[in-house]
Every structure is written in structure tokens, then in C-alpha cells.
Design a protein that fits this description.
Blueprint (H helix, E strand, L loop, with lengths): L1 H7 L5 H20 L24 H25 L5 H24 L2 H20 L5 H32 L1
Helix pairs in contact: 3-4, 3-6, 4-5, 5-6
Length: 171
């Protein structure tokens, strides 16, 4: 009785119920597919990395990840272009996007997608300014940056994101 009464209390949050549901789904999927083989090829004896890791299409994975990143950039740049004063979250968001942007640019370069790498490279100066210089309180700097965002950068982010989504669908 005591245990049942404790379960009926509103102490259990939605996150707890959701985590139990996720564990149940994972247990079901593992039980259903548990007997199937994992990695088909052995470890590479030279560097210890697997030769084929579940046949992941790294180009498609990069496109999807960069598309999600550009969605976030689009949102933050839209808020930045339409705000009148700086907020502490702007610098934090821009710093996080700057780090992610550099990682995605390096991944695109490594995969040979130089067009995407060049575009991400063009975003970096503005993200650096948003992260560090825009918080200095200079209204001229902020207005110049907002004008740069409004005069094409925001549109280019949206176009590149649409192109990435189209290439992801066509694969």
C-alpha cells in the first residue's frame, strides 16, 4: 500500500516518466535485435579503429548536423538583427556557435566539401564579433553588425540550409 501511494504522489516528474519510457523502448529494441551481428569487420591492427563502423554515410551525417547548426545560427542572427540592446545570452550563444562552426568547417574540409567549408568560414568573423566585441557596448559596432546580418548574411544562411536539406533528401 505504501509503495502504491508513493507512486500516486505528484513527486514523479514528466522527465522521470519519459526516461522510463525511453529505457523500455531501448530494452525492447535490444531484445528484438540483440541476436544480430554487430560490426562486420575486425579492428584495424595499425591504429585500433574499426574499418567499417555500421556503414555510416559521413557526408549525409555532416549535412544533417550542419543543417541543425544553421537552424540555430538563423534563429540567433534573427534575434540579433531585431534586438535593440545586447543581452548576456547573445555572447554565450555566439561563443557556442563559433566553436561548433569551426568544428563543422574542419569536418567539411576533411570530407572535401570546400563550398560548405568556405561558407562556414565566412560566418566565423561575425560570430567572433558577436561573441566578443558586441558586448563592449559600442552602438556603432552593433549597428554595423546588424546591418551586415540584414543585408544578405541571414538570407545566405537560409539558402545554404535549404541546399543542405535538399541534398539530404535526394540521398
Amino acid at each position: 500500500k505504501h509503495w502504491l501511494a508513493a507512486m500516486a504522489q505528484p513527486r514523479f516528474s514528466m522527465a522521470g516518466a519519459l526516461s522510463i519510457a525511453v529505457i523500455a523502448v531501448l530494452a525492447f529494441m535490444l531484445g528484438r535485435n540483440g541476436g544480430q551481428g554487430g560490426v562486420e569487420q575486425p579492428l584495424d591492427p595499425v591504429n585500433g579503429a574499426t574499418v567499417a563502423l555500421a556503414k555510416i554515410d559521413s557526408g549525409r551525417l555532416l549535412s544533417h548536423s550542419v543543417s541543425s547548426h544553421l537552424d540555430q545560427v538563423n534563429l540567433v542572427l534573427t534575434q540579433f538583427a531585431n534586438s535593440t540592446e545586447a543581452s548576456p545570452s547573445e555572447a554565450r550563444d555566439a561563443t557556442g556557435m563559433l566553436v561548433a562552426n569551426r568544428l563543422f568547417r574542419q569536418a567539411a574540409t576533411a570530407q572535401g566539401d570546400l563550398r560548405l567549408a568556405a561558407f562556414l568560414g565566412e560566418l566565423e568573423p561575425l560570430l567572433i564579433e558577436m561573441a566578443y566585441e558586441a558586448q563592449s557596448g559600442s552602438t556603432l559596432t552593433r549597428e554595423r553588425m546588424q546591418e551586415e546580418v540584414r543585408n544578405g548574411l541571414l538570407f545566405r544562411v537560409r539558402v545554404m540550409n535549404n541546399q543542405l536539406n535538399k541534398s539530404e533528401i535526394s540521398l
